[in-house]
Amino acid sequence: MTNLFKEFVLVKSMKTKLLLDTNFLIYLAKYGMFELLREQHADLLVIESVITELKKLSSKGADKANAMIALEIINRWKIPVIDMDIRDTDKGILKAASDLKNNGENAMVGTMDRGLSEKLEKAGIKILRIRQKKHFIEG
User: Fold this and answer.
1) From the DSSP assignment, how many helices (H) and strands (E) are in the chain?
2) Which of the four, 52, 69, 107, 126, has the lowest number of CB atoms within 10 Å?
């Protein structure tokens, strides 16, 4: 497994379906990167359990304000929410991304979670990460 990353810009011609993980959304809010994400020209998606996690985080804890910002952005931008029968967020994201990929879509997951990233890499699914609090990388 290599640890080399390249700068990444999503290509307009083959629109990417970008699934957003809870921690990725928290980082976007924390570093004020939502508008930069919007410039990537991807179809943004979240699964229901991400919404559930954000709601829990928005009621208490250090990430309360960031979770509220993430929920507001999801609502304001009308980001589609995929209803999954899987309650575990990581498993749900992996399943949703795999389903998209198997249907011929250019699927990618925005996450900062190493454990999830390893599972996605094994499944051949692209990952989008935040680097240096100011830009995205594919890895």
Assistant:
1) 6, 7
2) 52
Write down the mean pLDDT value for the chain. 86
Q: Which of 115, 92, 8 is nearest to 46 (CA)?
A: 92
Domain locations in the chain as residue ranges: 13-138
- Cα–Cα distance between 39 and 127 in angstroms, integer? 17
The tokens for 17 are: 């379906």
Quick one: what percent of the chain has pLDDT higher than 90?
Answer: 65
* CATH of the domain spanning 13-138, picked from 3.40.50.300, 3.40.50.1010, 2.30.40.10, 1.10.3720.10: 3.40.50.1010
As to burial, measured by CB atoms within 10 angstroms (0-12 exposed, 13-18 middle, 19+ buried), residue 42 is buried
Tokens coding 119: 């599972």
Could you tell me the sign of the dihedral formed by the alpha carbons of 8, 47, 26, 90, in that order? negative
DSSP code at position 98: H
Report the pLDDT averaged over residues 33-39.
84
